[in-house]
From TrEMBL, chains A, B:
Species, as recorded: Ammoniphilus oxalaticus
Domain ACT: 389-450
Gene Ontology CC entries for this record: cytosol
Lineage of source species: Bacteria, Bacillati, Bacillota, Bacilli, Bacillales
Presence of keyword Transit peptide: no
Protein name: Aspartokinase
EC number: 2.7.2.4
Transport as UniProt keyword: no
Length: 450, 450
């Protein structure tokens, strides 16, 4: 059995939903369909979720909001008409939404969660209705009835472990099951949404619960590229990558995925297949636990900029137990989250996103380091870029570092920092921001052109 | 003015002390002579300091120790005879030592310090006596009279800052001043010794106090080698290196110097010249603050083994503020001093000397990391070697990393870890212990053969 999740652009119009139907029909293993609310039809469009938020705000302020309500309903109506559905489904959606809007508004966060969740919920009802109208047995499944129980944190729900066993029972139902993404129910029956983009989370939880053989995530790109197409023209696509590789790449500019969303699937060891609703025959990219790596050591190259380095030196530093820990404590006191800490004998640098360091904080921190740690020298350098090469294949591959360092040297890029040795699947080079493009291109050339 | 410090082997016999005299006579700028106690004349010999310790222990136990006392005096006597000195100097030394031995023994640490310090103190008296007998005006200077005031920690004295101003006044005295190393006086007039090897410390303090143009440190090697001669045959000598380079090299097997000893000279920006008493015309090695680096990027290669790596991974680790700091705290709770912490996105490794990790501690630490930090995976790997290339010249030298990585790859050495980016003057490669020799040889070949 497969879980297929469709994002907002895959469900933005009747035409798109027809594609989804074809995709589901084409593979009888696609028993579970997780849906978002209708998204943007074009760049200037507004997502149904945003229409719903505007609607909820209007009701919170004025106790009514006809215009906003109709904007939402008109989206569903347009879809229903395109799909030749009978209008009773629109009546059902209208009544459901009106009931929520005129319901309890005493807790604005809870009210907002319920209104937002209706976007997915009603879309699931509409899609199940449509599938049936096309002769495919399909059932809308409410997360409440299915037992998707979450913590009671509006806008940031966390799945509770007992959900998985309940969701597993869905396997025994007949037909295609259409499941709304984005929300669950608290133990006392309240709607609670996940963080934004949370339909990915629902799909991941459902895939883990029903022990799917694959979690298909349909979006609007064919696959993940091996490097940013804005830096390298027509880069290679990645057919298969491991969770670890995906995480390393997502760190630096590969915004494929809300990576927290993958945790349930990751822990249940379910592979994730990224596919394109608009081109479903394209292979896509598969995220797996283990892969064979026969295509060279590197699977992808990522880069991210806007880093700074805080350099601290003190003669005989390495005799002082606790120096590094106390330095990190000083940063933590200002809520600075750091990335790396390369160290010499008597010096250590801490690399972090420079947007965490306004001039005032910088002054305070530098002063504390001189005073409390007795440092000899403290220097802050800004505008560093981290360039990362990622691949399970580099693990025991003598010479990968040499190839990378050579490529950078030949491109005239000075390596300010190297971080290698903890992760077996990545190697990170710190370079000056101005060298980013050249560095990425040189590494791509080295590892992907032949 | 120069401060010349002579180690134990340089003063082990009358013959050696004659060489010292020639060295002092050869350069009128050598106004300050800091001396150790007589050291070993050959491999199987016993240092006077060790004879004194045995003597003190005997007196502490039995209130007497004729045999041990005579063993000490016979060393001075042999020297005095060889140098044709009148025997009143030996009487003076004997009386001084007897007075200490029969003095207050109620505080054994203090008693031990006084007995040990007499080794340097009496040697200074003897040497001043000898210089005068050769027609060179020389004066023994007591650290008490000169004002070398230290903290009252027997065996671990720390110089007090007011000492420097007092020592400066020594500049105005006439003749060569012979100053015993290894000890100072507490504020209430008690002898307190530095940590073992502390004559280097005395010389460094004196050099800072008198604002010497150079601190000459005479030992028994011509100079510092660029690499361990047990690994590479006939390696190049280092003519000049900076304090930073010296510190980085001393970290990994370059036991030139008790590097704490250099702090006073380092802070006062006084260069240190390492020279050979047995071959004083050899250039030696000079430790400076700034040097020109025209001879390639690398000045030395060092390696040290017996490291282990503690690898910790946790999905989404890098979202957790404080993870690294809490990990280091767990190690600190067991007094483990770490060296490096390379990190990936969701993993971090801590590199430290494996002799700090017995199986029991390992089990405890690993358990805490799983339990308190919720780690997914914790792995300890032992027998790593750190190979370090050091040089101020690599600072802005595009391609040094590439050259090093290439050399290692061609020697078939896998790089387990790289630490580069904090120190501008070193680059560290973690390799498996079995690869140490090949790695060092390959790097030497790359950077020193041409």
């Amino acid at each position: 059995m497969k879980v297929a999740k469709f994002g907002g652009t895959s469900l933005a119009s009747g035409e798109q939903i027809q594609k989804v139907f074809q995709i589901i029909k084409a593979d009888p293993l696609r028993k579970f369909v997780v849906v978002s609310a209708p998204g943007k039809r074009d760049q200037d469009d507004t997502k149904v979720t945003d229409l719903l938020i505007a609607c909820a705000e209007q009701f919170l302020k004025h106790g009514e909001g006809k215009e906003q309500f109709e904007a939402v309903i008109s989206r569903y109506t347009e879809i229903a008409k395109y799909l030749n559905l009978t209008m009773d489904i629109i009546d059902r959606i209208s009544m459901d939404l009106l009931e929520i809007l005129h319901g309890d508004r005493s807790n604005p966060n809870r009210f907002m969660d319920a209104v937002k969740a209706s976007g997915e919920d009603n879309n699931a009802k509409l899609i199940a209705h449509y599938f049936n109208s096309e002769g495919l047995e399909a059932h809308y499944v409410s997360p409440k009835e299915a037992g998707l129980i979450v913590s009671d944190e509006p806008g940031n729900a966390q799945v509770l472990p007992e959900s998985y066993d309940r969701l597993r029972l869905l396997r025994d139902r007949t037909g295609v099951l259409v499941f709304p993404g984005f929300f669950g129910y608290s133990q006392d029956g309240q709607i609670v949404t996940f963080s934004r983009g949370g339909s990915d989370i629902s799909g991941s939880i459902l895939a883990a619960g029903v022990q799917a053989e694959v979690y298909e995530n349909f979006t609007d790109v064919d696959s993940v590229f091996s490097v940013n197409p804005n830096i390298v023209e027509n880069p290679k696509e990645i057919a298969e990558l491991t969770y670890r590789e995906m995480r390393e790449l997502s760190y630096a500019g590969f915004a494929v995925f809300h990576d927290e969303a993958l945790i349930p699937a990751f822990r249940a060891q379910i592979p994730v297949q990224i596919k394109n609703t608009n081109n479903p025959t394209a292979t896509g990219t598969k995220i797996v636990h283990v892969r064979s790596y026969t295509n060279g050591p590197v699977v992808g190259i990522a880069s991210d900029n806007g880093f700074c380095s805080l350099y601290v030196s003190k003669y005989l530093m390495n005799r002082e137990i606790g120096f590094g820990r106390r330095l990190l404590q000083i940063l933590e006191d200002d809520n600075i989250s750091y990335e790396h800490t390369p160290s010499g004998i008597d010096d250590i640098s801490v690399i972090f996103h420079q947007n965490q360091l306004d001039p005032e904080t910088e002054e305070k921190i530098v002063e504390r380091i001189y005073k409390e740690l007795g440092a000899d020298n403290v220097v802050v350098e800004r505008n560093l870029t981290m360039v990362m090469i990622v691949g399970e294949g580099m693990r025991h591959n003598v010479g990968t570092t040499a190839r990378a360092a050579n490529a950078l040297a030949q491109a005239g890029v000075n390596i300010e920092m190297i971080n290698q040795g903890s992760s077996e699947v990545s190697m990170m080079f710190g370079v000056k921001g101005v060298d980013e493009k050249r560095a990425v291109q040189a590494l791509y050339e080295e590892f992907f052109s032949n």
